[in-house]
């Protein structure tokens, strides 16, 4: 079933290699395309943001994250021998079964952890005034800066 396509690929590749060697022999140069060059330039300009290892860690996952952290040992026993994703799937099913009153303690735990994070972050910023924020505002500014895409008209 693949054979005719594989043969077409082999012939096209051989033709390309032959044409490329002739092109290079004639004095041609290999160049990257415009889009590849643009992407490289943008990546070099932005660089990778350095994160401070001393910065406080944000509490992850909301109330569900608190529930999962507390119940993970129980779920790992139930999901022994299964992939790691099975633990999260089982936890999400159990979380959906919980009533609002049963979810309440995890929500309060998360709210408390978030408050502690805010306090720790404000103290951290005061002690390190040159430290950047955790990136939320920057991401929002980037989204605002990008122009809206226009929908294409049918038939265009």
Task: Describe the protein.
There is one protein chain. α3 (62-78) packs across α5. Residues 134-143 have low confidence and may be disordered. The chain has six helices and no strands. Helices cover 67% and strands 0% of the residues. The two termini are 36 Å apart. The longest helix has 28 residues, at 100-127. It is mainly α and 156 residues long.
Average residue-wise pLDDT: 81
N-to-C series of helices and strands: HHHHHH
Tell me the number of strands.
0
Specify the biggest β-sheet: none
Low-confidence stretches: 134-143
What is the topology?
Elements: H1 3-25, H2 34-46, H3 62-78, H4 84-97, H5 100-127, H6 136-145
Gist of the model:
The chain is mainly α and 156 residues long. It is built from 6 helices and no strands.
Keywords:
156 residues; extended
